UniProtKB/TrEMBL annotation:
Bias (Low complexity) ranges: 113-133
Start and end residues of each stretch annotated as Disordered: 103-137
Matching InterPro entries: TAT_signal
Protein name, per record: Lipoprotein
Amino acid sequence: MPFRISAPAVRRAGPPRRAVLGWAAGAGGALAAVLAGCTASRPAARRAASRDTGLRRQAASDSALLLARYDATLAAHPALAGRLAPLRAQVAAHAAAFGAGAASPSARPPATAPASASAAASGSPAPSASGAPAVPPVPSGTSAALSALAGAERVAAAARSAAVAAASPDLARLLASVAACGAAHVALLTGGAR
């Protein structure tokens, strides 16, 4: 009888082939689920981005109008410059943060634009033919002018606070911060009286 030497079974190092194939199938399924989830969330992400764009645009418009009101008040009452200049600079920074055009602390748009009598009575601006923010006439007394400016700050702060709920987290933080700053401006303009 011839002597036969059988070769020992060679075993590879690492996990068995079936385990690797099972893992690959599981990973492929998980990847497919993630990609499907990403695809499904694209319309929601687009809606959220569109909503944020609208909220940001409105906040920028409100800030530009508020900045124009500060400028009109400063033009009508130059003696208030020391009191209003720091607040105006913050409003300009807010306008820039929301993406309003040339809203730098040194940029000053025209002091006033014509406003209708009903707009002046309601405190809301009338449309301007030039496209610049139209502001109501500034009251002749300094106390009344400060009260009108405080009212405009109060309205802007309320609008920003209301917009927080619909905004993305980053924009919501910005809106809330600017609304809080607006509330502080109201206190400074009214001497703490509400």
